[in-house]
Structure formats: structure tokens, C-alpha cells
Amino acid sequence: MRIQLAQRSEADELLGRSPLALLVGMLLDQQIPMEWAFTGPYTISQRLGHDLTAAEIASYDPEAFAALLAEKPAVHRYPKSMAARVQQLAAYLVEHYDGEPERIWAGVDDGKDLLKRLLALPGYGKQKAQIFLALLGKQLGVEPSGWREAAGLYGEEGSYRSVADVVDADSLTRVRSAKQEAKRAAKAQ
């Protein structure tokens, strides 16, 4: 299956081949449209002149990295704070996984173990970790036993709750509709 979260072929191609780009896109996916967030890794790689590596991002001068993300068009609505978060994530990956993000899910015992590893990532709370776990299972074939249960509602088959369910423009529309309905229901309570 081809990743289609950025809804731009060159950005989606990077997400499909680079686990680091996918993790960074998920990290950036807050307070901005999903497509903008998942285009962020591509924009960063274009500005760097090559694909992302955790070691380079972790060791990049923080002010220079923040300026790189703030350059127009900005990678995020809050480029300085998100630059710091991306660098924290990269540093964690270097320290715990030798800069190889795919080692997060390689050889996990089960879905609970994978969720625990994702929860340990800087910038990944419970919801983000569960959504990313669902994305791994639904779109990348990373399916340790119990992954759907560990992903919670985001792991449900046939659901349209999150980026884990976006595989084309139609599913994106369905996810947006479901999110709007959930917001309306929350306000009504």
C-alpha cells in the first residue's frame, strides 16, 4: 500500500520509504492540517538537500534548525517549538535505536510492547502513539499480536478516525467528517 498522507506524490513517496519521515510527520500533526504536517518531512529534506537522518537532525545547531523550519513556507505553525521537538525525537532515536526508527517496531513482543515503545518517544502522548501504532498496522503491515487492541479505537477495522485510515482523497474526507462529528458530539455534552 502506498502512503498518501501528504496528498502530494513526492512527499508521500518520502513517507513511504523513510520511517523517520513518517515519525516526524506524525509528530508535526498537531494544530495544523494533516497534509501540511506530513509534507513537513519532505520540506525539511528538500532544504537539507537529502533524506532525513536522525543523527544529522539531532546534532544540527538548534537555532539553525529552527530557522530551517521557519523559512517560508514554514514547516509548521510553530516552527521554533516544533524544531526543538523534532530534534528531541531524533536525539532519542540516536540514543535508543542507533538512529534507526524501524528498530522501534522490529522484534516487539506484542502490540502492548510496541505501544510502550511509541509512548516513550518525545512528543508522543497516548493518542498519538495509538494512532501511529494503527498506521503501522493498517498501512505498513506491522502487526504484532494484539496490535489492534493496543491501538484502541484507532485500530478498529473499517474505521475512519485518524491518519491511520487515510489511503486516498475519499478516506481523507471521511476521516475529516468523523472528526467534525466527534467535535460536535463533545460540544453537545
UniProtKB/TrEMBL annotation:
InterPro entries: DNA_glycosylase, HhH-GPD_base_excis, HhH-GPD_domain. GO terms for biological process: base-excision repair. Signal peptide: none annotated. Residues 24-184 form the HhH-GPD domain. Pfam families: HhH-GPD. One of its GO terms (molecular function) is catalytic activity. NCBIfam families: HhH-GPD-type base excision DNA repair protein (TIGR03252). This is Uncharacterized HhH-GPD family protein.
